[in-house]
Design goal:
Blueprint lengths: L1 H16 L9 H10 L9 E5 L2 E8 L2 E7 L5 E7 L8 H8 L7 E9 L6 E7 L6 E6 L5 E6 L9 H4 L1
Antiparallel strand pairs: 1-2, 2-3, 3-4, 4-5, 5-6, 6-7, 7-8
């Protein structure tokens, strides 16, 4: 009986320290991801939660993708890591090269897609030999929508940035 109590107590401790949705998403969310990304290997999707959204991390067509879903399976946004400037529209490229940030080093480029909004290209830059980075938010037509420093930000492109 004493051993049974210890097993129950240990099980409760383990379960309470594990996030409820780690590595799992409801079927409606998984089905939605499969419809949006038909070539994805569903066994290779890493599921987690971020600010109340189910987050699927996976590779698609050679790019790393993070897709955010609500509990009804609706994709709220998807972020594709483009890596560099090679895959941005020419309008975005030209606008960036003519900006005050053109001399900065490009650290990363992310395409953020939304179901009902235009896509946004986020260019992460850093000035050589200085600490701190900036995010530059462009629409596909090269218009700079927003710029901000990433200093003090924990989740620099999470749901709270867009949703």
């Amino acid at each position: 009986m004493k051993r049974f109590k210890w097993v129950v107590l240990l099980t409760i401790i383990i379960l309470s320290s594990t996030p409820a949705f780690a590595g799992w998403a409801p079927t409606v969310v998984q089905d939605s991801l499969q419809r949006l990304y038909p070539k994805v290997d569903m066994n290779a999707v890493a599921w987690s939660q971020d600010q109340g959204y189910f987050l699927g991390n996976f590779t698609y067509d050679g790019y790393t993708v993070r897709a955010y879903f609500n509990s009804n399976g609706q994709c709220m946004m998807a972020q594709t890591d483009l890596g560099g400037m090679d895959d941005v529209p020419s309008a975005v490229y030209n606008s960036f090269t003519m900006s005050d940030f053109a001399s900065y080093t490009v650290q990363d480029v992310t395409l953020v897609d939304f179901p009902k909004w235009q896509p946004i290209y986020v260019i992460l830059v850093q000035q050589p030999n200085l600490e701190g980075e900036f995010q530059l938010f462009y629409n596909p037509y090269g218009q700079l929508l927003r710029q901000r420093t990433t200093v003090g930000l924990d989740d620099i492109l999470g749901p709270s940035t867009f949703l």
